[in-house]
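Ligand-bound model needed. inosinic acid.
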Amino acid sequence: MDKGKVDALLGIVFGDEGKGKIVDYFTPRYDIVARFAGGPNAGHTIIFGGKKFVLRSIPSGVFDKGKLNIIGNGCVIAPDLFMQEARELEQAGYDVRERLHISKRAHLILPTHRLLDKAYEAAKGKNKVGTTGKGIGPTYSDKASRTGLRVGDMLEGFTLKYDTLKARHLQILSDLRYTGFDIREEEREWMRGVEYMRGFSLTDTETELNACLSEGKSVLAEGAQGTMLDIDHGTYPFVSSSSTVCGGVCTGLGVPPRSIGEVFGIFKAYSTRVGSGPFPVELTDETGDKIRSLGNEYGAVTGRNRRCGWIDLVALRYAIMLNGVTQLVMMKSDVLDGFPTVRACVAYEKDGRQVTDMPFDTEGWKPVYEDIPGWLSPLSSCRSEQELPQAFRSYVSYLEQQLQTPITLLSVGPDREQTIVR
Ligand code: IMP
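Prediction:
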């Protein structure tokens, strides 16, 4: 961590890598923690002191007194959900108002954006994206169409702007024949959320952040979702709607590329995916079920079963390239403790052709595996590299060699203490 730099912590596959735990672990080293993309589609689980918190829009530095947290311009916010999340933290004794600044340029998710999300999904038939239903896509569409509402709009002439956008949405819903909804109560709660948000520091976080960097302060950019869900580089169209990659840190916070320091790429010892879309390493058999149940792979936001599979080195190499990852963080290695052999996908194969670079169309590819001996002993009680079984250490070296990037942190359980620095 260098002073005056923005380090990025990014999920580098399909999200759900366990960023919450690692951001929480890293936070003490940084002055500022900032979210740069996504919104309440994220669910960052943090466990400490026997308590579990799921953060959706609020950065994970909110638990530390004296730390500034920023929701950047690249994010989208639903005022009603934000109010719920912030109130829970306030009730648990955390001074969210004191510790959080929200960019005036971040976009607002309206109740009608959530309806549009559902309506578009319904219209897609069997090609559904399997969104979280939080209105993410329609909100980013309005941003790109230059019709969106921003946090700063709450401060002046808001009612007219809100009514105009809502009318536009209702017209689209009617054109799609998506009817029979009643959002009056939801809308009232949303307006209460707007009022609540007005009590927060709604600022030009971009200017603020750059001033902090000039003063030598350090920033951790907390990613959301993962590289394979990036709007440009993911498995389009089965992606989210924001820039989840390192480039998104610059656009989503308003910081220049030269301010980026370390790029931590976080991944699991196996693969998971929620929602639809290509997933070459998916295991639909007992092994997949075993990984799901041992890894507790159920969505933090939607509760959906996550699809599970072996580690995908094709996807990881692609993500390391796109993000310029300088250090890797491997999560949930302990989940694979009981497997005599673990597998790693080193290439994809289709019609007798093998590729090791991510193809344009990820549909229909089969994984090519290499088998690695398992370690068959519990990792969760290990606290240092020396305590790790030799077979596991060989597996880590194998991954480093395949990925040409050092794995500097290993997580062997959900607790803060179950983290091994290498
Ligand atoms: P949306 O972001 O709600 O539009 O959903 C688009 C796709 O991204 C769906 O497949 C979701 O399951 C997936 N997705 C969105 N947020 C997350 C996340 O935080 N973790 C994992 N998958 C996510």
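The mean pLDDT is 95.
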